[in-house]
Amino acid sequence: MTNRLSLGLVQTAARHHAAGDPDAFAADVRGVIADHPDVRLLAYPELHLCGHRPGEDPRTVMTAAAEPLDGPRGARLSALARELRIWLVPGTVYELGDDGRIYNTAPVYSPTGERVAAYRKIFPWLPHETTAAGDTFVVFDLPGHGRVGLTVCYDAWFPETTRHLAWQGADLVLNLVRTPTVDRAQEVVLARANAIVNQVFMASLNAAAPDGVGRSLVVDPEGRVRGEAGPRSEEILTDVLDLAEARRVRERGTEGMARVWDPFEEGRPPLELPLYAGRVDPDRWRRGARP
């Protein structure tokens, strides 16, 4: 039997955290958990710990903030998750990779302090973002709940991203966002669309002003908005999700009708995909299969 997952999305601005103050961030996390003790998965927006302030040069801030995931910042985040016994997604950080390049990376820490996942943003917002692009779709398991996939901001505009995570078995896709622009309206639509066409829960977490324009939301696997935060303001959006509902929707169909994972069942011919110089092969299509 799947347990319900208590989720906390912290729609906030970086403020002093952007200056690299780990004690301030730890105090903020402790305060959130004190106010919401049932939350098991706590997430912050994109670049919450590393983002530039208004008037600062993003490249200078990026270079100064970049460090390996197993560096001092990672050690502090690991200890914080272990102390509070929560699944912690601290937003994204500037990661200095072994190849010397800087990535926009979302790490995930378990209640034991283990870093269980790290996703490098595949689609930086060109030409404005200068981080290196990742090349791997990342999911991780929440024992007793289900599987979670990770995306970062602009990734949500590319349907291939969420589709790959759903194919890898994600029941919930967590999209970490730092959008201060008017196209947040389109991102809200995309959160619903990605939920509908992939039959997954979507949690799109944006920053508050001045880093973002808010409107964080949680969408169910049939596209219904379960909760939405206000524009620009700082607030905590909480929800309790039965991730098994995503699996039930795929079995019975959206509104009892559309079963989007069924057309390429065994025995159907492959579908050529000229755009990708490849194909959809029924032997690989079944959701949850491994590449």
TrEMBL record:
SUPFAM superfamilies: Carbon-nitrogen hydrolase. Residues 5-243 form the CN hydrolase domain. The keyword Lipid biosynthesis does not apply. Keywords: Hydrolase. One of its GO terms (molecular function) is hydrolase activity. InterPro entries: Aliph_Amidase/BUP, C-N_Hydrolase, C-N_Hydrolase_sf. It comes from the Bacteria. PANTHER family: CARBON-NITROGEN FAMILY, PUTATIVE (AFU_ORTHOLOGUE AFUA_5G02350)-RELATED (PTHR43674:SF16), NITRILASE C965.09-RELATED (PTHR43674). This is Carbon-nitrogen hydrolase family protein. It comes from Streptomyces olivaceus.
